[in-house]
Write a structure and sequence with these properties.
heterodimer; A: 376 residues; alpha+beta; 8-stranded antiparallel beta sheet; two-stranded antiparallel ribbon; 13 helices; 10 strands; globular; B: 187 residues; mainly alpha; 7% strand; binds zinc ion
Amino acid sequence: MTPSESSSADGLPSQPSGVASTDHARTNSGAPLHASRLVRADDTQPPPDADCVLSSRIRLARNLLGFHFVNKASPPMLSDIVHRVQSARFGGPFAGGVRWVNVQATAPADRLLLFERNLISRPFVEAQHPRGVAISSDESASVMVNEEDHLRLQMLAPGLQLVALAERMFALDAELEHSLEFAFHPRFGYLTACPTNVGTGIRVSAMLHLPALRLLEELDKVQRAAKDLHLAVRGFHGEGTDALGDFFQVSNQVTLGRSEIDIVEEFNSVIVPRFIAYERAARRALLERDAASLDDRIYRALGILRTCRLLTLDEAIKFLSRLRLGAATGRLTEVPLALIDRLLLEVQPAHLARTTGCELGADRAARAEFVRRSLR
Amino acid sequence: MQRLCDCCSNPATVHETLVENGVKTEVHLCAEHAVERGLIVPGPHGPALVVAKLLQGQLSAQQPARRAVKTCPTCGSSMQSIREAGLAGCPLCYRHFEEELGSLINRAQGGASVHVGRHPAHAAELVDRAALRNKLARELREAVSREEYERAAKIRDRLQALGGQASDAFAESDSTIAGEHEGEAQP
Ligand SMILES: [Zn+2]
Ligand SMILES: [Zn+2]
């Protein structure tokens, strides 16, 4: 799929001295820019519930026995942890290959690129200590080493398909367990740096697209419902961002006392479908009430994106969200949903800088031109 | 005769007896040095009030003879540093502060206190043992409440054979952390 895969499909990294055991050059040239699993190819079947769910994610937190947690560990200990994990056998979603990125030695723009692709977290971009990330060749899975926990295993898929993700995640967990000894307590379960994550250490989340609920000013209700369901709500890019625009990330907060599969199944089959049903009802209400206004909103957004000369990230997301509502409801047929989802990724600063050569942060003109050409 | 401070010639107002490994040592400090050593905290009215209360024995009930803060021997974290950081220092903190962290976790997790779900293969025995102990403890409580003392005694024997306490298998669980025997923290 990408040029970087064939060269890194050996599964085991070579280990030169120090933490910098990752092939840095390969990393920099290797981050592929075209559609990955996160953003499906334009011609495939749409994933389940893609009209309201941008992507699903599962994360497992694991820590190695015999080491201090990341916040207390010395740099040499952190390097040792990176080495241990690098020499572990990866399985499941990594069967096709492991690409290791030494995040510490990676340029800021490239770290940002990984963040925008949801492969690493915001704190991981900015931290200073020894750390790395393993990325599966299809980019559906990543393992951050030395984030808040020693290991943060993460899997992503477009649309709502958490049960399938969970199965592959458990396969990865089981495979890693052969070579790594995870800290576990019979009462508290998997031990995590933050005491509120112990137990399963699982975080299940879905990025919802709720433009109709926002138009009907129902988002407060959504937020309250989420709170009642003990869910965390965040904005477009996860932790640290306010719920902004039409995108809403919900995730579980209870990690103890229920099995992983219970948590996943309830989230996938009960909780998220409730939000979806609510949004779909809102879309129907909008159409019944005033279809012309809705169409106007969608097609004006298309007009702006096709003709603008300067475009900020916030504007791009705002107008792309309107196109997305149009494509999802069938009011807009000339722009496929998959293209819109791809643009939502590619208008991000680091992606834009990579594609167009523009300067990070001084990218309004480049973004406008890029979007105009993509929607021509 | 008035005792003087161990550190200066002012009258000592804080007297502490420490017992360590059966050896008793006495410490006598003036208010100033007591504050400096962290034995008392200057209140809004200065150290005097705290000292006065100390001398009246009002604080001694809450403060054990050994005033040193409990820390995790593996990583040096105290409950206070864990609270401040919002993070434990190492896996063994969960054993050294099992009670404190247990109640914190319980509150954060909506009342849940016992893990259910996946576990490392090497922890299977621990998990089984914990589950069995939990079950026996429940049976024991039942037996006692029904006044079936003979049965209760048998259950208690089985529990003791498992290495747990009869009162509550989980509250008193032997908080072994899986694989711990295979080595403590690395440098
Ligand atoms: Zn003194
Ligand atoms: Zn500790």
